Amino acid sequence: MTEQEPPGVLDARYSAPDATAADWAQARERLSQAELYWLTTVRPDGRPHVTPLIGVWLDGALHVCTGAHEQKARNIAADPRCAVTTGTNTLNSGYDVVVEGVARRVVDDAELARIAAAYHDKYGEDWSFTARDGQLHHAGGGAAVAFRIAPETAYGFGKSTPSHTRWTFT
């Protein structure tokens, strides 16, 4: 699958005079290499629910998994709109990326097997899954549902030279 390469648009209101828009390839690399992400979903009553989790970038989207009865899975079932954030917990250095999109459940076992392989490659033996019956099954027991979150809009926030880049996907 060919990934979109939308142009970055710099928002001068939130950027230093010498800042430049980042390339999507740079943000995608940060999303791919991040160890931890923060997923924001919408509770049925409209309140946000934010939780840290691991994930993998594959085929132009972030993939995450969770227990089917966990709050984030229930939230996505009711309202699939979400945001994923990763970056650094610093003020004057690093780069943060926010992806807004819609979480779609992955049930195809072949696609789930690719996601499982990506988890294993990135996180090692502790995150070994087998794909079957539309779920990821952990070697230690238990099953997880997987979601694909393709970006609709993404933002990058540079800190050493303050910058605010926006990417819009079609």
Automatic annotation (TrEMBL):
GO cellular component: cytosol
Top-rank taxon, per record: Bacteria
The Pyridoxamine 5'-phosphate oxidase N-terminal domain, residue ranges: 26-154
Record-linked SUPFAM superfamilies: FMN-binding split barrel
One matching Pfam family: PNPOx_N
Keywords: Oxidoreductase
GO molecular function: coenzyme F420 binding; oxidoreductase activity, acting on the CH-CH group of donors
InterPro entries tied to this protein: F420H2_bilvrd_red/Heme_oxyg (IPR052019), Pyridox_Oxase_N (IPR011576), Split_barrel_FMN-bd (IPR012349)
Protein name per its UniProtKB record: Pyridoxamine 5'-phosphate oxidase
Organism for this UniProt entry: Actinocatenispora rupis
